[in-house]
Design brief:
Elements lengths: L21 H10 L2 H5 L2 H15 L4 E2 L6 H8 L1 E4 L3 E4 L6 H8 L8 H13 L6 E6 L1 H10 L8 H9 L1 H25 L3 E6 L10 H19 L5 E5 L6 H5 L5 E3 L6 H8 L4 E6 L8 H13 L3 H5 L2 E5 L9 H13 L1
Parallel strand pairs: 1-4, 4-5, 5-6, 6-7, 7-8, 8-9
Antiparallel strand pairs: 2-3
Helix pairs in contact: 1-3, 3-6, 5-9, 7-8, 7-9, 8-9, 9-10, 13-15
Protein backbone atom coordinates (compact mmCIF):
# COMPACT_ATOMS: atom_id res chain seq x y z
CA UNK A 1 0.00 0.00 0.00
CA UNK A 2 2.96 2.30 0.57
CA UNK A 3 4.80 1.36 -2.59
CA UNK A 4 7.30 -0.94 -0.92
CA UNK A 5 8.69 -4.09 -2.53
CA UNK A 6 7.86 -7.15 -0.41
CA UNK A 7 9.49 -10.57 -0.26
CA UNK A 8 6.20 -12.42 0.24
CA UNK A 9 2.63 -11.82 -0.86
CA UNK A 10 0.68 -10.29 2.06
CA UNK A 11 -2.70 -11.89 2.81
CA UNK A 12 -5.80 -11.02 4.80
CA UNK A 13 -9.44 -11.86 4.09
CA UNK A 14 -12.59 -9.79 4.04
CA UNK A 15 -14.83 -10.86 6.93
CA UNK A 16 -11.93 -12.88 8.36
CA UNK A 17 -13.45 -12.60 11.85
CA UNK A 18 -16.78 -14.36 11.45
CA UNK A 19 -19.09 -17.32 11.78
CA UNK A 20 -16.80 -19.85 10.08
CA UNK A 21 -14.58 -19.73 13.20
CA UNK A 22 -15.70 -21.76 16.24
CA UNK A 23 -14.01 -19.30 18.61
CA UNK A 24 -16.00 -16.44 17.07
CA UNK A 25 -19.28 -18.30 17.61
CA UNK A 26 -18.43 -18.82 21.28
CA UNK A 27 -17.70 -15.12 21.76
CA UNK A 28 -20.86 -14.11 19.91
CA UNK A 29 -22.89 -16.42 22.15
CA UNK A 30 -21.41 -14.65 25.18
CA UNK A 31 -22.36 -11.28 23.70
CA UNK A 32 -25.97 -12.36 23.15
CA UNK A 33 -26.44 -10.79 19.71
CA UNK A 34 -24.46 -9.46 16.77
CA UNK A 35 -25.05 -5.81 17.67
CA UNK A 36 -24.19 -6.45 21.33
CA UNK A 37 -20.91 -7.91 20.10
CA UNK A 38 -20.23 -4.88 17.88
CA UNK A 39 -20.97 -2.46 20.74
CA UNK A 40 -18.78 -4.24 23.31
CA UNK A 41 -15.19 -3.01 22.71
CA UNK A 42 -13.59 -5.86 24.71
CA UNK A 43 -15.46 -8.59 22.83
CA UNK A 44 -15.13 -6.84 19.44
CA UNK A 45 -11.37 -6.62 20.07
CA UNK A 46 -11.32 -10.31 21.01
CA UNK A 47 -12.94 -11.46 17.75
CA UNK A 48 -10.79 -9.09 15.66
CA UNK A 49 -7.68 -10.81 17.02
CA UNK A 50 -8.98 -14.39 16.70
CA UNK A 51 -8.09 -14.91 13.00
CA UNK A 52 -4.74 -13.18 13.54
CA UNK A 53 -3.91 -15.59 16.37
CA UNK A 54 -5.11 -18.62 14.39
CA UNK A 55 -3.70 -17.88 10.92
CA UNK A 56 -1.12 -15.11 11.31
CA UNK A 57 -2.77 -12.90 8.68
CA UNK A 58 -0.72 -9.88 7.60
CA UNK A 59 -3.43 -7.39 8.59
CA UNK A 60 -6.28 -7.18 11.06
CA UNK A 61 -9.56 -5.56 10.14
CA UNK A 62 -11.77 -3.92 12.74
CA UNK A 63 -14.71 -6.11 13.74
CA UNK A 64 -17.80 -3.99 13.21
CA UNK A 65 -20.52 -3.52 10.57
CA UNK A 66 -21.02 -1.06 7.74
CA UNK A 67 -24.47 -0.18 9.12
CA UNK A 68 -23.27 1.38 12.39
CA UNK A 69 -23.77 4.86 10.88
CA UNK A 70 -27.48 4.37 9.98
CA UNK A 71 -27.97 2.80 13.41
CA UNK A 72 -26.49 5.91 15.03
CA UNK A 73 -28.81 8.05 12.87
CA UNK A 74 -31.74 6.54 14.77
CA UNK A 75 -32.74 3.73 12.43
CA UNK A 76 -32.30 1.07 15.15
CA UNK A 77 -30.37 -1.71 13.45
CA UNK A 78 -31.20 -5.30 14.24
CA UNK A 79 -30.08 -8.62 12.74
CA UNK A 80 -32.87 -11.12 12.19
CA UNK A 81 -31.97 -14.80 11.83
CA UNK A 82 -32.54 -15.90 8.23
CA UNK A 83 -33.19 -12.31 7.10
CA UNK A 84 -30.08 -10.30 7.85
CA UNK A 85 -29.95 -6.60 8.72
CA UNK A 86 -33.27 -4.91 9.46
CA UNK A 87 -34.10 -1.41 10.66
CA UNK A 88 -36.80 -1.09 13.31
CA UNK A 89 -37.19 2.60 12.45
CA UNK A 90 -37.00 2.61 8.61
CA UNK A 91 -37.34 5.53 6.20
CA UNK A 92 -40.62 5.34 4.31
CA UNK A 93 -41.11 8.89 3.05
CA UNK A 94 -39.55 12.33 2.69
CA UNK A 95 -40.38 13.37 6.27
CA UNK A 96 -38.64 10.26 7.63
CA UNK A 97 -35.61 11.01 5.47
CA UNK A 98 -35.32 14.64 6.57
CA UNK A 99 -35.71 13.67 10.23
CA UNK A 100 -33.03 10.98 9.92
CA UNK A 101 -30.42 13.14 8.20
CA UNK A 102 -30.85 15.85 10.85
CA UNK A 103 -29.92 13.43 13.65
CA UNK A 104 -26.61 14.22 15.34
CA UNK A 105 -24.45 11.11 15.69
CA UNK A 106 -21.11 12.48 16.98
CA UNK A 107 -20.86 10.56 20.26
CA UNK A 108 -23.05 7.59 19.29
CA UNK A 109 -20.16 5.78 17.60
CA UNK A 110 -17.67 6.22 20.43
CA UNK A 111 -17.82 2.47 21.06
CA UNK A 112 -16.16 1.91 17.66
CA UNK A 113 -13.37 4.32 18.58
CA UNK A 114 -12.87 2.47 21.88
CA UNK A 115 -12.69 -0.83 19.97
CA UNK A 116 -10.07 0.51 17.53
CA UNK A 117 -7.97 1.84 20.42
CA UNK A 118 -8.18 -1.47 22.29
CA UNK A 119 -7.28 -3.53 19.20
CA UNK A 120 -4.29 -1.34 18.46
CA UNK A 121 -3.06 -1.74 22.04
CA UNK A 122 -3.36 -5.54 21.87
CA UNK A 123 -2.25 -6.14 18.29
CA UNK A 124 1.38 -6.78 17.37
CA UNK A 125 2.82 -3.40 16.41
CA UNK A 126 4.04 -4.84 13.08
CA UNK A 127 0.54 -5.94 12.06
CA UNK A 128 -1.51 -3.13 10.51
CA UNK A 129 -5.09 -2.51 11.61
CA UNK A 130 -7.60 -1.67 8.88
CA UNK A 131 -10.59 0.48 9.76
CA UNK A 132 -13.56 0.71 7.41
CA UNK A 133 -16.92 2.15 6.45
CA UNK A 134 -19.60 1.44 3.90
CA UNK A 135 -19.77 3.79 0.92
CA UNK A 136 -22.55 6.40 0.75
CA UNK A 137 -24.34 4.54 -2.07
CA UNK A 138 -24.19 1.18 -0.30
CA UNK A 139 -25.44 2.68 2.97
CA UNK A 140 -28.26 4.39 1.04
CA UNK A 141 -29.27 1.00 -0.37
CA UNK A 142 -29.87 -0.31 3.15
CA UNK A 143 -31.28 2.95 4.53
CA UNK A 144 -33.94 3.31 1.83
CA UNK A 145 -34.55 -0.43 1.59
CA UNK A 146 -35.27 -0.90 5.29
CA UNK A 147 -32.29 -3.25 5.69
CA UNK A 148 -31.24 -6.23 3.60
CA UNK A 149 -33.55 -7.10 0.71
CA UNK A 150 -33.88 -9.84 -1.89
CA UNK A 151 -35.07 -7.54 -4.67
CA UNK A 152 -31.75 -5.88 -5.58
CA UNK A 153 -32.67 -2.87 -3.42
CA UNK A 154 -35.48 -1.79 -5.71
CA UNK A 155 -36.57 0.88 -3.23
CA UNK A 156 -33.36 2.91 -3.46
CA UNK A 157 -33.50 2.71 -7.25
CA UNK A 158 -37.10 3.89 -7.09
CA UNK A 159 -35.95 6.93 -5.09
CA UNK A 160 -33.14 7.45 -7.62
CA UNK A 161 -35.56 7.72 -10.53
CA UNK A 162 -38.53 9.37 -8.79
CA UNK A 163 -36.84 11.63 -6.21
CA UNK A 164 -33.16 11.96 -7.11
CA UNK A 165 -32.85 15.26 -5.21
CA UNK A 166 -33.77 13.51 -1.96
CA UNK A 167 -31.36 10.67 -2.66
CA UNK A 168 -28.60 13.22 -3.20
CA UNK A 169 -29.48 14.85 0.15
CA UNK A 170 -29.02 11.49 1.83
CA UNK A 171 -25.77 10.71 -0.02
CA UNK A 172 -24.29 14.10 0.92
CA UNK A 173 -25.13 13.59 4.60
CA UNK A 174 -23.79 10.05 4.62
CA UNK A 175 -20.56 11.29 2.99
CA UNK A 176 -19.99 13.75 5.85
CA UNK A 177 -20.72 11.10 8.45
CA UNK A 178 -18.31 8.64 6.78
CA UNK A 179 -15.49 11.20 6.66
CA UNK A 180 -15.95 11.91 10.39
CA UNK A 181 -16.23 8.21 11.19
CA UNK A 182 -13.04 7.23 9.34
CA UNK A 183 -11.22 10.26 10.76
CA UNK A 184 -12.11 9.04 14.25
CA UNK A 185 -10.87 5.52 13.47
CA UNK A 186 -7.55 6.85 12.17
CA UNK A 187 -7.07 9.06 15.24
CA UNK A 188 -7.78 6.07 17.49
CA UNK A 189 -5.13 3.94 15.80
CA UNK A 190 -6.27 2.54 12.44
CA UNK A 191 -3.24 2.20 10.15
CA UNK A 192 -5.32 2.07 6.95
CA UNK A 193 -8.99 2.51 6.04
CA UNK A 194 -11.22 0.78 3.51
CA UNK A 195 -14.43 1.87 1.80
CA UNK A 196 -16.84 -0.94 0.95
CA UNK A 197 -19.15 -0.17 -1.98
CA UNK A 198 -20.80 -3.57 -1.80
CA UNK A 199 -23.73 -2.58 -4.00
CA UNK A 200 -22.06 -0.25 -6.50
CA UNK A 201 -22.59 -2.94 -9.14
CA UNK A 202 -26.36 -2.36 -9.00
CA UNK A 203 -26.02 1.05 -10.62
CA UNK A 204 -26.30 1.56 -14.36
CA UNK A 205 -23.19 2.36 -16.36
CA UNK A 206 -24.13 6.06 -16.48
CA UNK A 207 -25.32 6.38 -12.87
CA UNK A 208 -22.33 4.87 -11.09
CA UNK A 209 -20.14 7.99 -11.59
CA UNK A 210 -22.96 10.25 -10.36
CA UNK A 211 -24.28 8.34 -7.35
CA UNK A 212 -21.25 6.39 -6.16
CA UNK A 213 -17.87 7.37 -7.63
CA UNK A 214 -18.44 11.08 -6.98
CA UNK A 215 -18.89 10.48 -3.25
CA UNK A 216 -16.04 7.98 -3.00
CA UNK A 217 -13.81 10.65 -4.50
CA UNK A 218 -14.99 13.27 -2.00
CA UNK A 219 -14.20 10.97 0.93
CA UNK A 220 -10.77 9.93 -0.38
CA UNK A 221 -9.79 13.53 -1.17
CA UNK A 222 -10.84 14.80 2.27
CA UNK A 223 -8.99 12.01 4.05
CA UNK A 224 -5.92 12.60 1.89
CA UNK A 225 -5.91 16.25 2.98
CA UNK A 226 -5.93 15.29 6.65
CA UNK A 227 -4.00 12.00 6.57
CA UNK A 228 -1.81 11.87 3.44
CA UNK A 229 0.29 8.93 4.66
CA UNK A 230 -2.60 6.67 5.72
CA UNK A 231 -3.41 4.10 2.98
CA UNK A 232 -7.00 4.19 1.65
CA UNK A 233 -8.54 1.16 -0.09
CA UNK A 234 -11.68 1.21 -2.25
CA UNK A 235 -13.67 -1.93 -2.99
CA UNK A 236 -16.60 -1.88 -5.43
CA UNK A 237 -18.30 -5.24 -5.77
CA UNK A 238 -19.41 -5.64 -9.38
CA UNK A 239 -17.28 -2.62 -10.28
CA UNK A 240 -15.08 -4.20 -12.97
CA UNK A 241 -16.72 -2.21 -15.76
CA UNK A 242 -15.67 1.05 -14.02
CA UNK A 243 -12.20 -0.08 -12.99
CA UNK A 244 -10.45 2.53 -15.09
CA UNK A 245 -12.41 5.30 -13.33
CA UNK A 246 -11.89 3.77 -9.88
CA UNK A 247 -8.13 3.66 -10.50
CA UNK A 248 -8.23 7.43 -11.04
CA UNK A 249 -9.26 7.94 -7.41
CA UNK A 250 -6.34 9.10 -5.29
CA UNK A 251 -6.45 5.92 -3.21
CA UNK A 252 -3.61 3.59 -2.27
CA UNK A 253 -5.31 0.34 -3.18
CA UNK A 254 -8.30 -1.13 -5.00
CA UNK A 255 -10.11 -4.31 -4.07
CA UNK A 256 -11.51 -6.34 -6.97
CA UNK A 257 -14.10 -9.11 -7.02
CA UNK A 258 -13.68 -12.48 -8.72
CA UNK A 259 -15.31 -11.34 -11.99
CA UNK A 260 -12.30 -9.12 -12.76
CA UNK A 261 -9.16 -10.38 -14.50
CA UNK A 262 -6.35 -9.88 -11.99
CA UNK A 263 -3.62 -9.40 -14.61
CA UNK A 264 -5.60 -6.69 -16.43
CA UNK A 265 -6.45 -4.93 -13.18
CA UNK A 266 -2.81 -4.91 -12.10
CA UNK A 267 -1.74 -3.46 -15.44
CA UNK A 268 -4.46 -0.80 -15.26
CA UNK A 269 -3.54 0.22 -11.72
CA UNK A 270 0.12 0.67 -12.62
CA UNK A 271 2.73 1.29 -9.92
CA UNK A 272 0.89 3.95 -7.95
CA UNK A 273 -2.04 1.83 -6.77
CA UNK A 274 -2.05 -1.63 -5.18
CA UNK A 275 -4.50 -4.34 -6.24
CA UNK A 276 -6.20 -6.49 -3.63
CA UNK A 277 -8.08 -9.69 -4.44
CA UNK A 278 -9.66 -11.67 -5.88
CA UNK A 279 -10.27 -15.36 -5.18
CA UNK A 280 -13.93 -16.39 -5.39
CA UNK A 281 -14.95 -17.03 -1.73
CA UNK A 282 -16.82 -20.17 -2.88
CA UNK A 283 -13.46 -21.75 -3.75
CA UNK A 284 -12.98 -22.26 -0.01
CA UNK A 285 -16.02 -24.56 0.01
CA UNK A 286 -14.13 -27.10 -2.11
CA UNK A 287 -11.74 -29.79 -0.88
CA UNK A 288 -8.17 -28.99 0.17
CA UNK A 289 -6.60 -29.99 -3.16
CA UNK A 290 -9.02 -27.77 -5.05
CA UNK A 291 -8.29 -24.82 -2.73
CA UNK A 292 -4.54 -25.29 -3.18
CA UNK A 293 -4.87 -25.52 -6.96
CA UNK A 294 -7.06 -22.39 -7.25
CA UNK A 295 -4.80 -20.31 -5.01
CA UNK A 296 -1.76 -21.27 -7.08
CA UNK A 297 -3.66 -20.54 -10.29
CA UNK A 298 -4.44 -17.02 -9.07
CA UNK A 299 -0.85 -16.37 -8.00
CA UNK A 300 0.39 -17.71 -11.36
CA UNK A 301 -1.60 -14.93 -13.04
CA UNK A 302 1.04 -12.39 -12.01
CA UNK A 303 4.77 -12.26 -12.63
CA UNK A 304 7.11 -12.35 -9.63
CA UNK A 305 7.70 -8.61 -9.98
CA UNK A 306 3.94 -7.92 -10.05
CA UNK A 307 3.40 -10.05 -6.95
CA UNK A 308 6.16 -8.27 -5.05
CA UNK A 309 5.04 -4.76 -5.95
CA UNK A 310 1.54 -3.62 -5.05
CA UNK A 311 -0.38 -6.86 -4.71
CA UNK A 312 -2.32 -8.16 -1.68
CA UNK A 313 -3.98 -11.57 -1.69
CA UNK A 314 -7.62 -11.47 -0.63
CA UNK A 315 -11.00 -12.87 -1.58
CA UNK A 316 -13.31 -11.23 -4.10
CA UNK A 317 -15.80 -10.61 -1.27
CA UNK A 318 -16.37 -11.73 2.32
CA UNK A 319 -15.60 -15.28 3.43
CA UNK A 320 -18.64 -17.57 3.65
CA UNK A 321 -19.85 -18.72 7.07
CA UNK A 322 -19.90 -22.27 5.65
CA UNK A 323 -16.13 -22.26 5.05
CA UNK A 324 -14.04 -24.90 6.80
CA UNK A 325 -11.39 -23.27 9.03
CA UNK A 326 -8.96 -25.91 7.77
CA UNK A 327 -9.39 -24.67 4.20
CA UNK A 328 -8.32 -21.19 5.31
CA UNK A 329 -5.17 -22.77 6.74
CA UNK A 330 -4.59 -24.44 3.35
CA UNK A 331 -5.02 -21.07 1.62
CA UNK A 332 -2.54 -19.28 3.90
CA UNK A 333 0.01 -22.13 3.77
CA UNK A 334 -0.20 -22.31 -0.03
CA UNK A 335 0.50 -18.58 -0.35
CA UNK A 336 3.41 -18.73 2.11
CA UNK A 337 4.93 -21.77 0.36
CA UNK A 338 4.46 -20.36 -3.15
Amino acid sequence: MQGQTVDKVPVWLMRQAGRYLPEYNKTRARAGSFMSLCKNPELACEVTLQPINRYGFDAAILFSDILTIPDAMGMELDFVEGHGPKFNNPIGNENDLRRTIQTEIDTKLDYVGSTVKLIRENLNKNTPLIGFAGSPWTLACYVLGGGGTKDDFIQVRKWLYKQPDLLVLLLEKLTEHIISYLTMQIKKGADAVMLFDSWGGLLSYHNFPIYSLHYLEKIINRLNESFPTIPKIVFVKGGGVWLESIVQLACSGIGIDWTVDLKSAKKLAGKDCAIQGNLDPAVLLGDRNFVRKEVKKLLDTLTEEERKNGYIFNLGHGISQHTSPENVSILVDTIREY
